[in-house]
């Protein structure tokens, strides 16, 4: 079906083809930069269900309430992400991608170190959760500007026919950061509870400082996006407010992008934040082993995302994402059956079905799918806005929705979560179906 638009179709880039050296450097920089960003962001998510309810709320509080409040703070970071996307997208579309990405990385590193040094509720009382909220919001602002910028720096440094795969290299920073976060946290989660809650959980946050330094070095060396540089040379970079142009020129494109990403991101956050403490509470899989299961599935995820993106470079964004929607609907109930199997290897297989298959099948092409909806001068803001609002709808609400759905008195348990996920996927598939295919047009220009 043809996508309706309120203005002309997005123009494809006329930028000169960048050198192979610049392309490789941009890909590596985007990948490692996103890895650092999501290591910090997802480390909080992993700790939210294991540590923060115990340390940053009163001991007299019911553990379930503490977990819910911890997830609310988690949601605060997701809510601030669209604001960060608009803010950094504004500067990215006005002044270029490179400097903005340098700033977002520094912000993320600083916040992670501060969380690792934070005093607990016993030491400073209510100031502890309030400080955690503030730091989480700053984290969300930084990530809001990071995802689109890193994805565009990768995609805009290669030929148009390879943009799906190139964009996915930056996207794989998410599961790579998850691998590092859960692996490092898992190592320390093996400590006795007293040591883990006293100092063990802090080390992964403090270690991010080392990774940030490496990421900043790589970001400093990368060249500006050729697409943006060409647009600036031709005088096509507007001096107005990018968000107003995006809302006026691409209302339906933005809406379709938001709805398309919500389902895959719900599954990603569900496994990264909710599933580990849920599995550990069943007593079949120890906390540390559950984190390692998530780590291994995220490692496979790193290769699954580029695979589905590569397929989209060959067959189109829409066919691959629609096939991914069918895969997601078909496998979500088997995934939960494995998660509830009461067997060690059944739970491990559930993570493998959830991340590299269900989530990646629709998520792999998402970077190019969103980027190709917008013109160069509006692209940073457009991609940031659509992805981050979809992130709030999908990932940000996932732990809270899962906890609430599990608590319903209909006795359905995880089936409630599965049906909710299917609803998100169906809506996302309709949005993809209504979107125009951009691969063939981009490849010919």
TrEMBL record:
InterPro entries per the UniProt record, alphabetical: MFS, MFS_dom, MFS_trans_sf
Source organism superkingdom: Bacteria
Key words, A-Z: Cell membrane, Membrane, Transmembrane, Transmembrane helix, Transport
Location of the Major facilitator superfamily (MFS) profile domain: 26-440
Pfam families linked: MFS_1 (PF07690)
Transmembrane segments: 41-58, 64-88, 100-118, 124-144, 165-189, 201-220, 255-278, 290-311, 320-339, 345-371, 383-405, 417-434
Bilayer disposition of the protein: Multi-pass membrane protein
Subcellular localization: Cell membrane
Protein name: MFS transporter
Source organism: Microbacterium fluvii
């Amino acid at each position: 079906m043809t996508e309706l638009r309120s203005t002309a179709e997005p123009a494809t880039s006329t930028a000169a083809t960048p050198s192979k050296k610049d392309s490789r450097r941009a890909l590596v920089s985007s990948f490692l930069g996103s890895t650092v960003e999501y290591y910090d962001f997802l480390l909080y998510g992993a700790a939210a269900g294991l540590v923060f309810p115990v340390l940053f709320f009163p001991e007299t509080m019911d553990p379930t309430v503490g977990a819910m409040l911890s997830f609310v703070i988690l949601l605060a970071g997701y809510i601030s992400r669209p604001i960060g996307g608009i803010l950094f997208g504004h500067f990215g579309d006005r002044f270029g991608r490179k400097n903005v990405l340098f700033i977002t990385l520094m912000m993320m590193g600083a916040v992670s170190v501060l969380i690792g040094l934070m005093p607990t509720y016993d030491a400073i009382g209510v100031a502890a959760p309030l400080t955690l909220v503030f730091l989480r919001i700053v984290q969300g602002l930084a990530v809001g500007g990071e995802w689109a910028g890193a994805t565009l720096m990768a995609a805009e440094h290669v030929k148009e026919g390879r943009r799906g795969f190139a964009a996915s290299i930056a996207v794989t920073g998410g599961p790579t950061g998850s691998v590092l976060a859960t692996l490092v946290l898992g190592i320390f989660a093996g400590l006795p509870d007293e040591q883990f809650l006293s100092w063990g959980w802090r080390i992964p946050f403090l270690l991010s400082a080392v990774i940030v330094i490496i990421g900043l070095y790589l970001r400093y060396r990368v060249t500006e996006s050729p697409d943006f540089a060409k647009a600036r040379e031709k005088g096509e970079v507007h001096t107005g407010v990018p968000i107003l142009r995006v809302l006026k020129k691409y209302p339906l494109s933005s809406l379709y992008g938001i709805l398309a990403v919500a389902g895959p991101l719900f599954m990603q956050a569900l496994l990264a934040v909710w599933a580990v403490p849920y599995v550990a509470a069943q007593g079949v899989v120890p906390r540390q082993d559950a984190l390692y299961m998530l780590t291994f599935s995220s490692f496979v995820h790193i290769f699954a995302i580029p695979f589905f993106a590569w397929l989209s470079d060959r067959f189109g964004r829409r066919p691959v994402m629609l096939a991914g929607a069918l895969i997601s609907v078909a496998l979500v109930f088997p995934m939960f059956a494995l998660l509830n199997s009461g067997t060690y290897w059944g739970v491990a297989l559930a993570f493998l079905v959830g991340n590299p298959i269900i989530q990646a099948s629709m998520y792999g092409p998402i970077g190019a799918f969103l980027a190709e909806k917008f013109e160069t001068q509006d692209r940073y803001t457009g991609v940031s806005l659509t992805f981050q609002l979809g992130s709030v709808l999908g990932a940000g609400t996932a732990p809270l929705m899962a906890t609430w759905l599990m608590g319903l008195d209909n006795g359905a348990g995880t089936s409630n979560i599965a049906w909710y996920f299917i609803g998100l996927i169906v809506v996302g598939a309709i949005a993809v179906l209504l979107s125009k295919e951009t691969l063939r047009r981009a490849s010919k220009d």
